[in-house]
Structures are given as C-alpha cells and as structure tokens.
Design a protein that fits this description.
The complex is a heterodimer of chains A (109) and B (124).
Chain A lengths: L8 E4 L5 E6 L9 E5 L6 E4 L13 E5 L3 E6 L8 E8 L7 E3 L3 E5 L1
Parallel strand pairs in A: 1-9
Antiparallel strand pairs in A: 2-6, 3-4, 3-7, 5-6, 7-8, 7-9
Chain B lengths: L2 E5 L2 E3 L5 E8 L8 E6 L5 E7 L8 E3 L7 E6 L4 E6 L8 E8 L9 E4 L3 E5 L2
Parallel strand pairs in B: 2-11
Antiparallel strand pairs in B: 1-3, 3-8, 4-5, 4-9, 5-6, 7-8, 9-10, 9-11
Classes of the chains: A mainly beta (109), B mainly beta (124).
C-alpha cells in the first residue's frame, strides 16, 4: 500500500519557521491534507488540497507540494503550535484508500 | 456550532462486539459522508471506514484490517452514524473518532470536523 513518511520530530524556537515534510512516491494528482493534534484532543484540519486553509486556521499555516514531498510550513511559531502533525492522502488501493503519515511531533523550544 | 459526539466505548473481551454511536449537530447531516478513524494508544491515525450519504447510495468502505468484522450504518432521522464492531481483537484497542468529509468536496476529501473520540479497550 501507499506509504507517507514523516520525520518523528521537529524542533523550533518561538518566532522561527517550522517545516514538516511528508514523503510519498510520486504524489501526482493526490491532494495532501494536514492535521494538527494536541495531546488528548481530536485532530484538526489545518491545510487541505496541498495548500488551502480551512476557515479559522491561521495564515501562519501553509502547505506546498513537489513530486515526492509535501511540506507544512508554520511561520512565526508560537508555543501553542506544539503538537503532532499528520499528513494524509487518498490512494487507489481499495484495501487502504485513506493513508496517514506516521506523524511528526513539533516541539517549540 | 457544528459538532460530533461519540459514545458507546468501553472494555470488551476478545471476540466480543461493541457498537459506537456518533451524533451530529449544527449541520445538514443527511448530506455528509462520514468516516471512522482510530488511534491506538501512543500511535498514529488509522482510517477505519466510511459511509456515503443516502443520496450517494449509503455505500460503505473499510480498511483491510477491519473488513468483514466492522459495519457502518447511519440514521439520518437521528443525525447519527454507527460503527458496529464484531469479533474484536486486542489490536482493535484504540480511541475511535468519527469525522466528516469536507462539505462540497466531491470525492477524495479531507476530514474537516472530528468528534472527541470514544475509547475502546479489548482485553481479557
């Protein structure tokens, strides 16, 4: 099945820019979606279709995608951005049509 | 306010059954495609399955690990989606979230609204 690879952890100082990557095998037309999950809480959609932001999500969150790597960028990082971040795509595999990356823990130093 | 609230979690023995409910409010539920996603303790997110709207045939789909053991149904009159879990295994222990497809997405959509989750523990 399709695999999405994320770094286990990323650390960044407040006010700096965090970049969280999500590696896939030729994303092609697959839209990449990103979720933020804080401890004990449900995930929250922060970026969808590679680069779009849901209403209510800070413009500090942005997304981009190349052939094999999608990136979630968080500008001017704040303490409250510390969380786990997951990328997600839909795949044509009928047994595993929805794929999540393993998640990246963002630590704000 | 749009909201999803799960219930029905608990402790069940291996081989047992459990039904989770997810009640929606604040939006037109009958039009929504709904999903279940689970998260084992300390682990990442895993998609479980989906049910389309009645208008789109109420078709269901499941991930391989739960296919033939889990079913999803909906009652639009009660704004509720259900996850029926049978022949439960230790590996099914997780927090189970219901989630909604982004409205008007039209296909392979992200999940824009999530419930708070229901904990299922499978243990003897």
């Amino acid at each position: 099945s399709y695999v999405l690879t994320q770094p286990l952890s990323v650390s960044v100082a407040p006010g700096q820019t965090a970049k969280i990557t999500c590696g896939g095998s030729n994303f092609g037309t697959k839209g990449v979606h990103w979720y933020q999950q804080k401890p004990g809480q449900a995930p929250v959609l922060v970026v969808f279709e590679d680069e779009d932001r849901p209403s209510g999500i800070s413009e500090r969150f942005s997304g981009s995608k190349s052939a094999n790597t999608a990136t979630l960028t968080i500008s001017r990082v704040e303490a409250g951005d510390g969380a786990d971040y997951y990328c997600q795509v839909w795949d044509s595999n009928r047994d595993y049509p929805v794929i999540f990356g393993g998640g990246t823990k963002l630590t704000v130093l | 306010e749009e909201r999803l609230v799960e219930s029905g979690g608990g402790l069940v023995r291996p081989g047992g059954s459990l039904r989770l409910s997810c009640v929606a409010s604040g939006f037109i539920f009958k039009n929504a495609w709904m999903h279940w996603v689970r998260q084992a303790p300390g682990r990442g997110l895993e998609w479980v399955g989906r049910i389309k709207s009645k208008l789109d045939g109420e078709t269901t789909g499941f991930a391989a690990p739960v296919k033939d053991r889990f079913t999803i149904s909906r009652d639009d009159s009660q704004n509720t989606v259900y996850l029926e879990m049978n022949n439960l295994k230790n590996d099914d222990s997780a927090v189970y979230y219901c989630a909604r497809d982004l409205p008007s997405c039209g296909g392979e959509c992200p999940f824009d609204l999530w419930g708070q989750g229901a904990l299922v523990t499978v243990s003897s």
